[in-house]
Design a protein that fits this description.
32% helix, globular, alpha/beta, 6 helices, Rossmann fold, 6-stranded parallel sheet
């Protein structure tokens, strides 16, 4: 059984294309859940972090947490500062922006101090497309500098929306199932 909890990117429908593509490719023992983040068109860490916490707390069996774009960086931020949920198998991000020096400048979404220690026990794979014109692939380098244990990969031909990214994402998720 593979269950995916996908935390969406910013904007109403910010990850709809990715969720639809993953859903089309799910096997009989696989499922995906993608809760809508509060005020997705006007994201704020003060609203998104509690929503991520609630979604994680609702998981009552093994799951892989996936975060797309802002959902990825918010998921990492929450997990870095809080105990991992008991059934969490791994975290995978797709096109997660890095907030901080060298990346984007919204301190409220930045990783907390000590993030590497907070995430150390969680298998983490960070993916980015090589044709992403929103979050450049070099954001992975910024994450690796702060989180040396994470694994990273560039997906050829993948843009920011990951509209045709279901296969690549499911392949990654199945590694941890």
């Amino acid at each position: 059984m593979v269950h995916i909890l996908l935390i969406q990117g910013a904007g109403v429908g910010g990850s709809d294309s990715l969720v639809a593509d993953v859903s089309r490719q799910l096997g009989p023992d696989e499922s995906i859940e993608a809760p809508v983040m509060p005020l997705a068109d006007d994201p704020a860490a003060a609203r998104w972090l509690p929503a991520v916490a609630a979604a994680l707390a609702e998981q009552d069996g093994p799951f892989v947490a996936v975060g797309h774009s802002l959902g990825g960086s918010t998921l990492l931020q929450w997990l870095a500062a809080n105990p991992a949920p008991p059934h969490l198998r791994a975290v995978i991000t797709a096109a997660a922006p890095f907030w901080g020096e060298g990346g984007w400048s919204m301190a409220e979404f930045a990783l907390p101090a000590g993030a590497a220690a907070g995430l150390a026990g969680i298998p983490c794979l960070m993916l980015n497309g090589d044709v992403d014109d929103t979050v450049p692939p070099d954001h992975l380098d910024l994450y690796r500098a702060q989180l040396p244990h994470v694994e990273t990969a560039i997906i050829p031909g993948m843009d920011h929306e990951w509209a045709r990214g279901g296969f690549a994402l499911l392949d990654a998720v199945r590694r941890y199932a």
